[in-house]
């Protein structure tokens, strides 16, 4: 069937026709999408209490409107990635129940018993299992889709399957390019504009280093990366962690996922400087965030290396020194991407509510300047850091 746009009633009709609910069910549907791009319906049988989520792509960018067309083909990448995640890390992602590439939709497990990690963090919630879970997600998805594990042929087929032209272009522009000059699409706090004009946009060496990281993003088909791994793509509870919204997935630099999630945690860390919260509470929460980043990264490296020792198939992966060099480069790039994502969320098109929730524009600007400065330190000095502790020490010293 050719594409049509779902609404609440049509989503019910569709799921009934697919036999996803039984004939006797009594369905309600609610559109809950809060993301930048797509429609998301929670459809529930009020009799049995069972529910599913139907996510459909719109033929344009939702936050901008029909003036920015975007093909609905992105659902195919999300479904393909989610199928692979369902195989590699089934406990850490929503179960994929059904896909319909013509209608550009997927039906998946309803996770609304969990809270979006970003909203939890804005209330200083702690997620005790997060570091353990996200490090497994990263180590397993990034290792088992790499050349260390896959055969050369399988790997190249995967590269071909994930030619995600349009969503890669969004990242190339919005993350790696627009923030470095006065681009039309930037979304700028008016109080920050003078700083951008007089200081930030004159940093040609910074733009050069970011461009090198962009080039790796363009060319380095290392692993199947999630591509949009911020705290709004994660549900986190006391016991569970679920990673979703993989429409940006493609075969790219593994460090991008690792750097992006750490960068988003750092953004939350810095954001508290602009908020009227109890100083001790802030200190306590920041210590928790630092511990989380350290644990996440240490566990990620440990698990990635364990996977390598156990399951590397490529004989070159056993050559003396190869793995150490790989891990070192991965770390350097992780720090670079971490800095890049901190910067793009300040004045690029899409912001983080952690910072935009600061209503006083002067206070918000001060936080934003801090983020730009920290992002720059990370990018410019990425080769000088020896381990994650040195990175978090730098953060602590500067905030
Ligand atoms: P977008 O690609 O537009 O950003 P997301 O996949 O991030 O869309 O989903 C937008 C919102 O819909 C999420 O923030 C979440 O509130 C809700 N949502 C998405 N998937 C699920 C799910 N499996 N269970 C419950 N809610 C979901
Ligand atoms: Mg999203
Ligand atoms: Mg919670
Ligand atoms: Mg998305």
TrEMBL record:
Keywords carried by this UniProt record: ATP-binding, Kinase, Nucleotide-binding, Transferase
Listed Pfam families: APH
Keyword Manganese among UniProt keywords: no
EC number(s) from the headed UniProt entry: 2.7.1.100
Main enzyme class: transferase
GO BP, one annotated term: methionine biosynthetic process
GO MF entries: ATP binding; S-methyl-5-thioribose kinase activity
Keyword field contains Nucleotide-binding: yes
Top-level taxon of the source organism: Bacteria
Domain named Aminoglycoside phosphotransferase: residues: 30-285
NCBIfam families registered for this protein in UniProt: MTRK (TIGR01767)
Protein family per UniProt: Belongs to the methylthioribose kinase family.
The protein's assembly and partners: Homodimer.
Name the record gives this protein: S-methyl-5-thioribose kinase
Organism: Alkaliphilus peptidifermentans DSM 18978
Source taxonomy: Bacteria, Bacillati, Bacillota, Clostridia, Peptostreptococcales
